[in-house]
Write a structure and sequence with these properties.
Number of domains: 2
Shape: elongated
Strand order of the largest sheet: 1-2-3
Largest sheet: 3 strands, parallel
Helix content: 55-70%
Strand content: 5-15%
Structural class: mainly alpha
Radius of gyration: 21 Å
Amino acid sequence: MTTVFADTFYFLALLDSREDRHHQAFDVSRDPQLRILTTEWALAEFGDAYCHPKDRADFVALYRSLLNHPRVKIVPADTRLFQRGVEFFEQRQDKEWSLSRLASKSVSRHFGSMKLLERITVEPGKCGGRPCIRGMRIRVKDVLDMLADGAAQEEILADFPDLQPEDIQASIAYAARYLDHSVLVTT
């Protein structure tokens, strides 16, 4: 099952048949092979767009149907998500995007890195149980060592013909996730 991220624009297109992408959004909503990921931030921004009293019932009905839908995951609007959105908001001075859009976008980016991490496998009998790429005997460490030595992506792909560019990204994402912890420093 494939997961797609539903932003505010998706919900606006879904409910308004005059939107250019209405049919596309409608098809996504009906596709049994797609799982929909969204955030409370995206839904709040969508609710803001439907703030007129005559539109509120449409928003509430859609929201309630999403809550009980087996193919929909709504990520709660928590402090960490808000902070990532603010960081993204600060970094993307080139865009006139709302804070709620950027908070949702950070979830989408996080989901993308989670998909990349699915490429990393650990098998007890393979390479001493070290993280490998897609079940092959190519260790994440081998790719990271080459990157640390200044190798370009093209060089790595030439040395390991079975690798794909996404495998290199997955190795970096794995290292970033593995190293994201506090370090106790004694003085």
